[in-house]
Write a structure and sequence with these properties.
homodimer; 250 residues; alpha+beta; Arc Repressor Mutant, subunit A; Chorismate lyase; 2 domains; 28% helix; globular; DNA-binding
DNA sequence: TTCGATTTGTTCGTATGTATT
DNA sequence: TAATACATACGAACAAATCGA
């Protein structure tokens, strides 16, 4: 067979074409988070390629934490209910290096139109209907992170305050389980600044004490942005950890 | 042949054993940065494994940016002379998202013994002979990052001020070319703080303006630490970008 | 410019091992 | 125990890029 598949018009290798098709199926909700996707042999038959090509396609999705393989069981769509996926997206640790599961408390919820700041910070078209959510994260009982979250209402139908307040697990877990929105990648920008008095008060900071200011964009499949955050982090006892994979190189 | 190679006592898969052996050879300086390692077919013959196993072993080292493949040419030990490797380790960007090659200026150099702070921050045994280097990075002509770098003298024989001052390219490029020390991974911890007046002055900051404080540990092969930094970043016009790979998921 | 050798890249197939159900 | 699914290892064939004769 040729190295280029007949219905592959983009001159991409076959395994990448397969990867696309799997990604599209995921984006379309064909297989839900936590569920198993068809077995490699079944996918090979379905796509009419060798099992090795299927494995190669899945390899990259596993590396991107979009799928999870389990020998003897199957290959599953990654969920946000496991601790390791949490710490893939949550980078605040104790200054002693301790990692802790944060306790979450919702402080506010409203719906409105996106404004100029959203356009400047996130490239979000002005006037988009959005929900705003203020969420406080505590570590060891102490308030450490204040998140101001913005999501387009369109992506999250029938979103309401009670859903957020009564949720179990992480916010991304909620997106995934209830709205079928799967966050697979984030981009964060950090700077140091003086938080507003209101924020400093919530975070229990002394006045004039600086804090970490963060802007995050969260992406789903195919690099489509689905959530925007402005956060303040009290770094008196904690810090932001950026650790570029321990995967390879041992 | 068995899945476990005769001289593989650790019950690791064969490709990982091969990966180890390649990594050890790299750490021993058998192949220098910029040089080609033996071809896959040659390695396969040398290690008495199939070429597929060699490819699998190299795959992970390429993913970890330790090796670089080039079709038709060979597989090379990664260097710090290319722009893309620079931005893998340098995370400061303009607030408008612009990436710029920093201009470097050495402000100080001395040798001494490591102190209590090094032990606390980096786990570096107290009393180790170290070199201290103060380096200023400018972006667009403006001072933005001040690095206080600490390296164990043992790893860098005959290290002197002139070598640093007259270098071309990055500091990690210098480590690599002149001392055979190849930085392959870094871990960074960030917090917000008030810089000392001296630092604020160097960075051209207004007094009482907060800055990003960073501690970095740089690792070579096999996760052995080789360099320690304390940095201050002026985030008036720039910010720290943490973008967890765009590789997969497209 | 052409050609051939070399090297990595892609795809296929097969056999066997290991974990799960 | 048997069936299923992923994991490892091998090999073959051809494609595509590179480089020097």
């Amino acid at each position: 067979m040729n190295s280029v598949h007949p219905d592959n018009l983009t001159a991409n290798p076959l395994y990448r074409e397969v990867q696309w098709r799997i990604t599209r199926a995921l984006a379309a909700g064909e297989w839900k988070p936590g569920e198993a996707i068809p077995s490699e042999s079944r996918l090979a038959a379905q796509f009419k390629v060798s099992i090795g090509t299927i494995r190669r396609a899945i390899d990259e999705l596993v590396a991107g934490r979009i799928l999870v393989r389990q020998q003897g069981r199957g290959t599953f769509v990654a969920t946000h209910t496991e601790d390791r996926t949490l710490f893939y997206f949550f980078h605040v640790v104790g200054k002693d290096g301790s990692r802790e599961f944060p306790e979450s408390e919702m402080l506010g919820f409203r719906k409105e139109r996106s404004d100029e700041a959203d356009e400047r910070d996130f490239g979000l078209a002005r006037g988009t209907r959005v929900a705003r959510l203020r969420n406080l994260l505590k570590l060891g009982g102490q308030p450490v992170v204040l998140d101001d979250i913005t999501v387009p209402v369109e992506e999250f139908p029938k979103l309401d305050e009670a859903t957020f307040r009564k949720r179990e697990g992480t916010i991304y877990g909620l997106y995934q389980a209830r709205y079928g929105v799967n966050v697979v990648r984030i981009s964060e920008r950090l700077s140091a600044a003086q938080p507003p008095a209101e924020v400093a008060g919530i975070l229990g900071m002394h006045p004039n004490q600086p804090a970490l200011q963060m802007r995050r964009i969260a992406y789903s499949y195919n690099d489509s942005p689905v959530e925007y955050r402005r956060s303040w982090i009290n770094t008196a006892e904690h810090e932001y950890l950026s650790d570029l994979w321990k995967t390879a190189a041992r």
